[in-house]
Every structure is written in C-alpha cells, then in structure tokens.
User: Fold this.
Amino acid sequence: MAVQVNVPQVGESITAVTISNWLKKDGETVAMDEVIAELESDKATFELTAPVAGTLRIKKQQGESVAIGDLICEIEENGTSAKTQTGPENKVSRPENTAATYTAKPTGEVKEMKVPAVGESITEVTLSSWLKKDGDFVKLDEVIAEVESDKATFELPAEATGILRIVAKEKETLPIGGLICRIEITEGEPAANAATQTPAAAPSSGGGKTYAAGHPSPAAAKILAEKGIDTKDVKGSGPGGRITKDDAMKAQPAAPKTEKKTVQPAPSLAFERNERREKMTSLRKTIARRLVAVKNETAMLTTFNEVDMKPIMDLRARYKDKFKEKYGVGLGFMSFFTKAVCQALKEWPAVNARIDGDEIVYHDYCDISIAVSTPRGLVVPVIRNAESLTFHEIEAEIMRLAQRGREGKLSIEEMTGGTFSITNGGVFGSMLSTPIINPPQSAILGMHNIVERPVVKDGEIVVRPVMYVALSYDHRIIDGRESVSFLYRVKEMLEDPGRLILGV
Assistant:
C-alpha cells in the first residue's frame, strides 16, 4: 500500500511552498517521522517528515513550487507500488495510454471561491494576475491566480475540479470573503486535455515555452518589484525556467543602454528632458491606502525631545569588550532604548494600550516591535516580554530576529502582536522625522542619528553627542501630558543609565 504525502498547512497566510532540498533520494527506505525534505516559503523554512516507514517515491522535484495540500511524494509500505492500485481511493494514478477515455461530466454542482483570510489585520487583497482563463479546465489545488496584500503575495489554488468561471478582474481589489470565481464541478477531465498530457519530465516538442518560463514565484515577484526589475530581464533557474526567490535576490538592475551617436552637421543646443512612467504596483497602492488610513483614522500627533548620548556611549566604551566576551553579543544602543521604553510604559500604561471599539485594552506586558532593515525592505519583528529580559537577552533576540529577517525566514507570528514600536532612522542618516503609528498600537518611538552639538552644561557651552527622539501617538487615547512625560522619562533614563539598573 502506498501512502500519499501532501504539503501540510504551515502557516495561516501561506498557500504554497518551494522544495528547497530533498534529504532522501527516490527509492530509498525511510523511517517513520524521519525528516525527508526541507520546504521553504517567502517567510520561513519547514521540515517534512515521513508519516510511515517504507520506500520513498518522489513526485515533485527540488526547486518546484507546490501548493498547500498538493501531492509531494508517496511512501510504499511492504513494497506495494502506487501505480498498481486501481481502487476508487487512488484517484491520482491513471493507466497509461487510456487518456482518451477520460471525459468531463458536469455534476451540476458549483463551487464559489471567495477571498480567504490571509493574515491578522488584512482586510482586503488585490487580484494581481489570473494564471488560468475563463472557461479553462482546472484541477483541485491547481494554482489559478495570484493575490497580494500590503504584506505578502499569495497563490490561490482551485478548491474543486471543473470549469473555471471568472468573476473578479485582474487588478481588482476585493475584501476578505469577496467572491473571486466559480468552478462548475465535473467528474473526470476533457478528453482533449487528457490526451495531450505528457510526462512532467519530458521536454515539450517544438521547443515551446511553458507557463513557468520567465514567470516568477510570488516571493520572487515581490523582490523584483521592490528592486524595479522587469521579469523579462531575469533568467529563471527553477523548474521549466521559473524565476525563483534566489534568482530575484541575485538580480541587478540592467545598466542603461548607450547608443552610438552619429556626428551631426550642427550640434543641437536643446537639453534632454526625458520622462518615464511606471505603473504603480498593486502592492504599493495597497500600502499607500493603509498609510493614509492610519493618518485619517487616528488623531496622530508627534512630540520631540533630545537626548545627551555621552553617558551611554561612555558606558558602552568601558564595558563593550567584557560584555561581548561574557555573552557573545555586542552591546548596542537598542537594548538601552528598549529597557528605558519598558520602564516608561509601566509608568504610563496608556502609551502601551490600544483601542478596541468602545474599550481601551491595557497590556501588563511589553511586546516591543523593532524595525529591522532587510534586502526586501523594513520588517518589524516583535521582542516578547521585553520588560523581563536583561540587556544581553535583548541584544541576542534582536540579533536573532535581524538574522532571520535578512534570510527571509521570519514567521507571521514573529511579526504580529506588538504593543509598542521602536524605529531607528538614524542608521540611514535621518536627523528628525515623524514616524507613523503601527496599528492597532497607539504609539511609536523614532530614534535618529547622533550628531555633536553645542549644549549648555552647568552654565558652560560644551560639545555633546546629541540624538533627537520623536514619539508619535494617538491623541484619542494618549493625552499630551502622558506623551510628553513618557518621552521625558525615556530621556531621563538614557542620560543617567544607572536609573535603568536601579529602576528609579
């Protein structure tokens, strides 16, 4: 008997994975619960284990993108091959040379496909592209479209086998639960469709391009869009020429072409005033709508202050070598700011709260969202219960999350649920900014660059390394007195690090 192994559900908003590595070869014997493959999405990497012991029969090759629920391999128990099974339970196996006997018979049933829930706080998606045409025959779990939100791109698999009837148009924005298409359910498949099927490994006659050729995976498409690179300028290394995430990460914008100019009898004195237009991506449009919504739906204000960073810089210079030798991590500014913020949040709980309808939800813990720069852009993973962590534990967690972010392995859980955010524009040279609140949070602290400035200390003008800090907050829940007092409390503890240790 052969046990079919399908791609498991690996995350709330993940609809497809890529087979990054087979750890066992086709025909090898595997033990129950043994790891046989590694699967990768655009957010995380997962291990695939064998549900039973037996002989492995690989159905999808390394590098292929496979939808959640699709068949990835089979495991033969007691040496029985799946190909010899003809019972009604084995619908995947079909005898060779009998393709013409399969015909699609309408059952009269119609499956309505609606926009699934793809993540916390996501209320709508944009239908970026249809991979099948209206009237096409589609199979269960076959990818028929791609949709995207402001956070990620997802593949949409067919929820039944039958004839596709498209309802939503490309580039149309739909709410969660909105109708996308209908599938007229059939038994079997069209004779012409079955007769023209060839083994997956066989090359297409005539050298015609497959759908995969030059087509990016959802993760690759997002990376290329962020880099401003056209997919036609990227050569895919995946199955059938599909552009993988690795191809997109390595891709570089093409150098501007230079054309040879012939010598003109009289040189033109006109200056070049060229313009170019690029259509805004659906992802960028969604981000724009959400940012405007935050500005429109919150009473956002920003208050500012300045911090003399010399005490912290002196402390770091004195102990950074011993700190790294003992804990194995560097002593950065972020742990000081995180500890100061947690202490201030305890004293001013409204800054750590959120609005839920007509109620205010207060948190007795501090889950601090930290903005991290990655090749794909800024991500905001969360340090859980930061108020109970030590300096080296905070630094270690920041380093771990930053590394996972750069590798594209952050999970949805690691990026949701924060109660307060810290963003550091200073690493890019920003002197001052008004950061935008990350809903449903009610406040965000902005750090900036450190610049030597003349300040008055004890009646004398001295040069000090100064950082401007900004607190953007929702005035509906946080009053001016609370916001100013909170930021001043953070300033107090940073200018006198002993307060952080003693909690005073």
The first strand starts at residue 2 and ends at 6.
